[in-house]
Amino acid sequence: MENQTESKPRRRVILFPLPFQGHINPMLQLANLLYSKGFSITILHTNFNAPKTSNYPNFTFRFILDNDPHDQRISNLPSHGMAAFNRLFVFNEHGADELRHELELLLASEQVSCIITDALWHFTQSVADSLNLPRLVLRTSSLFCFLAYASFPLFDHLGYLNLADKTRLEEQVEGFPVLKVKDIVKLGFKSSTDPIGQMLGNMVKQTKASSGIIWNSFKELEEPELETVIRDIPAPSFLIPFPKHFTASSSSLLDQDRTFFPWLDQQPPNSVLYVSFGSTTEVDEKDFLEIAHGLVDSKQSFLWVVRPGFVKGSTWVEPLPDGLVGERGRIVKWAPQQEVLAHEAVGAFWTHSGWNSTFESICEGVAMIFSPFMGDQAFNSRYMTDVSKVGVYLGTVWEREEISNAVRRVMVDEEGECIRENARVLKQKADVSLMKGGSSYESLESLVAYISSF
Ligand code: UDX
Predict the structure, then answer these.
(1) Which structural domain, as residue segments, surrounds residue 135?
(2) CA gap 303, 281 in Å, rounded
(3) Which residue of 97, 184, 263, 330 has the fewest CB atoms within a 10 Å radius of its CB?
(4) What is the pTM of this model?
(5) Are residues 427 and 440 in the same domain?
(6) What is the CATH number of the domain that holds 74?
(7) Contact, 349 vs 367, CB < 8 A?
(8) Catalytic center residues
(9) Per-residue pLDDT tens for 40-75?
């Protein structure tokens, strides 16, 4: 953790996260980091999914974009499930005037160095330009994923987005050989000009137009991708492994259960599988039961996060037959994930491959099983399986035998030992990158100097 610099007056940085857990966490970690480096912090946020402000007594919070309860464009939107993401379309289309007004007030009251927004807030670039305010972008997924998104027009042109011939799913993607065609199909949209395709296209365009890009990653993890990014994007890139500096606990939107720790403490090293599918995924009851049976059949101990709402049509885990989980398993609603991953009893992580989860696992040297549901998750899974080689690709077929086999491959088999060794080596590389003169250390220093130069 960093020392605070109290001697000089603090310069203010405004941060504007996307209001979803996987985006709030890295932005608040970045805010903590910049505060520790001597900057004042203002967070712009929607009322929707607002983090607990009392966890951040040193930050100023300003709530924007959804203060009007009568604005039916927003008040009619559900707060859970995928439809909650429709807010992104509304705010990106209609949010500029309100954001400009808010920024004008802030700029009039004190000196602001820059604004840092989530890359998916693409509408913020023109607002920042109109105020001559430098805008940096926080991209919350990998460099590899960004380059894949930037290639969508090409993928569309090659016919991958609207593929009729299902025999081609296992083919390598032309011009992007790490990916398989099925990884692109998994995204579930048909054209680079449909609403999600357009939003991602705008995200790429306005990220390239920004004054700088901050990535939750480190150079040694994605070296070829970094070379491409540096070649293709004039704005400087800064790669900082946030989980190595701060945990994401203080920005958790759900209460974290800690009651399982005495049980976890008693388990032998590397003997427990941690299972969590992130903050937005859902499964049918039938698939939920297959997951439960697969875990039990693997005969490994497990700690399973089942978020309320994960099982469609159920409040929590009601469909589970009594006694199925037995003594080997613990089920909780939400956990302090990074602490769990850092625990010596944890031997592997079965994940939906959201970038935060994937990267937190890398930072703790924990091998993974990948079951991507949507979006960047398929890209993360592919890269981690085939390039970094730190896990096995299971997918979302949800059959108990396949599940128990995958668990045993990683936890018990010789193959798993090799995968776990790769994960340990990657963690060491992350650790070395943070030492004085290391790539992540230098990147953070450059970012601080860059922001201070505005
Ligand atoms: C979403 C997308 O799924 C993901 O692909 C994209 O990269 C970011 O937005 P999410 O589903 O929330 O993210 O997954 P992920 O990116 O893994 O973030 C989940 C966060 O919740 C992690 O920081 C994790 O530590 C935290 N978490 C998860 C907990 O604190 N407790 C839990 O029990 C589970």
Answers:
(1) 12-161+189-249+436-452
(2) 18
(3) 97
(4) 0.96
(5) no
(6) 3.40.50.2000
(7) yes
(8) 23, 118
(9) 999 999 999 999 999 999 999 999 999 998 998 888
Q: Do 72 and 38 fall into the same domain?
A: yes
**Which residue in 222, 217, 200, 89 sits closest to 150, CA to CA?**
200
Looking at the structure of the chain, the number of domains it has is 2
Residues 28 and 79 in one domain: yes
Measuring from each residue's beta carbon to the nearest atom of ligand 1, which residues come in under 6 Å? Answer: 20-23, 25, 140-141, 248, 252, 276, 278-280, 305, 334-335, 337-338, 354-357, 360, 375-377
ipTM, 2 dp: 0.98
Are 236 and 308 contained in the same domain? no
| 166 in a structural domain | no
Q: Residue 215 Cα, ligand 1 centroid: separation in angstroms?
A: 16
Residue nearest to atom 34 of ligand 1 (CA): 278
Question: Which residue minimizes the CA distance to atom 28 of ligand 1?
Answer: 278
Residues 405 and 446 both lie in one domain:
no
Length of the chain equals 454
- DSSP secondary structure string for all residues of 321-384: PTTSSTTTEEEES---HHHHHHSTTEEEEEE---HHHHHHHHHHT-EEEE---STHHHHHHHHH
Q: Are 123 and 136 in contact (CB under 8 A)?
A: no
In this structure, the answer to whether residues 332 and 445 fall within a common structural domain is: no
Answer whether residue 2 is part of any domain: no
Residue 180 lies in a domain: no
Q: Report the residue among 258, 275, 356 best suited for mutation to probe ligand 1: largest number of ligand atoms under 8 A from its CB.
A: 356
User: What are the backbone dihedrals phi and psi of residue 371, each rounded to the nearest 5 degrees, phi first?
Assistant: -130, 80
Two tokens at 431? Answer: 């650790």
- Over residues 124-171, the pLDDT tens digits come to 999 999 999 999 999 999 999 999 999 999 999 999 988 888 899 999
Give residue for tokens 């820059």.
114
